[in-house]
């Protein structure tokens, strides 16, 4: 019998060299830094001019994982100035950052499927893996093509992978709380199959999904309907709810809403305890990352002294930003804006509507355009650069009749 072909060795190149990183830091600062945001932060997170108060959450904007991914992408261009550089999808979910990488001629490849473009990669090409990671099939393809891989996957995402891999090793099905179509969850679910590929997973997004699964755990029901409800993207191939809900381990996309993840764990535990008389067939591991948690906690803290209106700045496809919007919407008028351009018109705010999943226009709250005192809250997701937050702050003050010059000297 012939030996299986050995996997090509991944090329390792140290791109975090001090002289490279020094230039990268300077460039990243020039593109994304905001002296105004830094000053407000230093002054306790609040700035009042006249009868307008701008309040920032204590934690917002770029997280360590995003900063690292951007640094590595910029460093790739410095280290390989003349080589073709590709990126699987987007480095993070922010259009401005992705635009900057496009200007550096870093070319985005499809991330939902391995297209023919992947077959054209050569050993001289550089391929960047984004902060969310990539499914194992994509990593195998890059290795097969022999290109230079710059892997920016966040360490917190890798922690989730270790967890679901260990579930698979013990024949435990991973129940992943996340979005089936999100880059990170696609990457995680591929690891939930384990090294042998024989593991199983089910992705659930809502409490309604959870209740449906719990009902199946308790009463069985129609298997075909179960599989159709979740769809092929949300479960492993060959997933059989009659077999694969016996031993389950819960994990989550790192950017989910913590309270929801906890509720999902609680409901699954109750269902298993009712079925088995104990919860021995359940493993749980909270994999929400520290940065997501801190931003959610900081927003809850800000809402204790509720502002009149809240702007949440970030990419519309950003999961952690979406959850900040959900938290805000529960208690006050909240607008999910991509950047300050959404506030250009004097008649309406352009903002993303979570219910219709589309950008929409709404009238400004009358207080914002009146002479009454107002407190405006601002926060931003982990993928939002400070310069976009600064532009939003400038625009908010401008709407209140305070010019950028007045603000600079305040
Ligand atoms: S949001 Fe969390 S998991 Fe995602 S890059 Fe930032 S630190 Fe990493």
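Sequence proposed for the structure above (410 residues):
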């Amino acid at each position: 019998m012939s030996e299986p072909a050995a996997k090509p060795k991944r090329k390792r190149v140290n791109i975090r060299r001090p002289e490279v990183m020094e230039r990268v830091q300077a460039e990243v600062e020039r593109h994304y830094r905001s002296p105004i945001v830094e000053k407000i932060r230093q002054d306790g997170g609040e700035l009042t001019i006249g009868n307008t108060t701008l309040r920032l959450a204590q934690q917002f904007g770029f997280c360590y994982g995003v900063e690292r991914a951007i640094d590595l992408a910029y460093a790739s261009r410095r280290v390989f100035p003349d080589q073709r550089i590709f990126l699987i999808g987007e480095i993070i979910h922010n259009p401005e950052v992705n635009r900057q990488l496009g200007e550096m001629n870093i070319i985005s490849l499809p991330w939902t499927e391995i297209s023919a473009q992947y077959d054209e990669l050569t050993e001289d090409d550089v391929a960047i893996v984004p902060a969310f990671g990539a499914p194992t099939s994509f990593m195998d393809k890059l290795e097969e093509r022999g290109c230079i891989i710059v892997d920016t996957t966040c360490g917190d995402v890798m922690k989730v992978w270790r967890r679901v891999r260990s579930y698979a090793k013990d024949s435990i099905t991973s129940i992943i709380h996340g979005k089936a179509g999100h880059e990170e969850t696609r990457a995680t679910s591929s690891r939930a199959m384990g090294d042998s590929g024989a593991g199983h997973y089910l992705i659930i997004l809502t409490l309604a999904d959870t209740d449906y699964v719990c009902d199946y755990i308790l009463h069985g029901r129609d298997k075909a309907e179960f599989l159709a409800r979740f769809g092929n993207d949300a479960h492993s191939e060959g997933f059989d709810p009659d077999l694969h809900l016996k031993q389950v381990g819960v994990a989550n996309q790192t950017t989910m809403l913590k309270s929801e993840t906890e509720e999902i764990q609680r409901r699954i535990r109750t269902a298993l305890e009712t079925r088995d008389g104990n919860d021995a067939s359940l493993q749980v591991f909270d994999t929400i990352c520290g940065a997501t948690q801190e931003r959610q906690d900081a927003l809850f803290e800000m809402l204790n002294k509720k502002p009149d209106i809240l702007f949440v700045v970030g990419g519309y496809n950003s999961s952690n930003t979406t959850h900040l919007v959900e938290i805000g919407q529960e208690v006050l008028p909240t607008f999910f804006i991509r950047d300050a351009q959404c506030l250009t018109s004097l008649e309406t705010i352009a903002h993303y509507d979570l219910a219709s999943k589309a950008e929409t226009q709404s009238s400004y709250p009358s207080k914002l355009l009146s002479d009454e005192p107002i407190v405006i809250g601002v926060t931003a997701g982990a993928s939002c650069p400070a310069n976009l937050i600064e532009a939003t702050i400038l625009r908010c003050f401008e709407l209140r009749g305070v010019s950028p010059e007045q603000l600079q000297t305040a």
